[in-house]
Amino acid sequence: MYRTLDLLVSSGLVAERDFGEGFRRYEPVAPGQAHEHCICSACGRVMELSNDRLERVIALVAEEVEFRPHHHHLEVFGLCRDCQQSNPLARTTVT
């Protein structure tokens, strides 16, 4: 099975993701459908995020430094809504 996954990853049909959980996740790659990930550091929940404004910011920043990106990957770690509500003392800061 892993050889099949490696083949799918190398062909660009599947993306391998490692969110630091001790195992890898795999997801299908849809052409032109970029998405990012929000990962809860308390419960491990992974939420997909797709945002046109973020895509425009990435394009503008790349243009400023005369860079032509072909893909990008963003992971945002923090607390999901459920974990925030279950622990009202939890505070996260953006650095």
Strand order of the largest sheet: 4-3-5
Q: Structural class, from helix and strand content?
A: alpha+beta
Q: Over all CA atoms, what is the radius of gyration?
A: 16 Å
Shape: flat
The major β-sheet equals:
3 strands, mixed
Question: Overall mean pLDDT score?
Answer: 82
Helix content: 25-40%
Q: What distance lies between the first and last C-alpha atoms, to the nearest angstrom?
A: 40 Å
Question: How would you spell out the order of helices and strands?
Answer: HEEEEHEH
Low-pLDDT residue intervals, each spanning 5 or more residues: none
Describe the structure.
With 95 residues, the protein is of the alpha+beta class. Helices cover 31% and strands 22% of the residues. The protein has 3 helices and 5 strands, in the order αββββαβα. The protein has a 3-stranded mixed sheet, with no helix packed on it. The protein has a two-stranded antiparallel ribbon with strand order 1-2. Strand 3 (36-40) and strand 4 (46-49) form a beta hairpin. The chain starts with a helix and ends in a 9-residue tail after the last helix.
Topology:
Blueprint: H1 2-11, E1 14-17, E2 25-28, E3 36-40, E4 46-49, H2 52-64, E5 75-78, H3 81-86
Parallel strand pairs: 3-5
Antiparallel strand pairs: 1-2, 3-4
For this entry, give a set of tags:
95 residues, flat, single chain, three-stranded mixed β-sheet, two-stranded antiparallel sheet, 5 strands, alpha+beta, 3 helices
Structure at a glance:
By secondary structure, this protein is α+β, with helices and mostly antiparallel strands. The protein is built from 3 helices and 5 strands, in the order H-E-E-E-E-H-E-H.
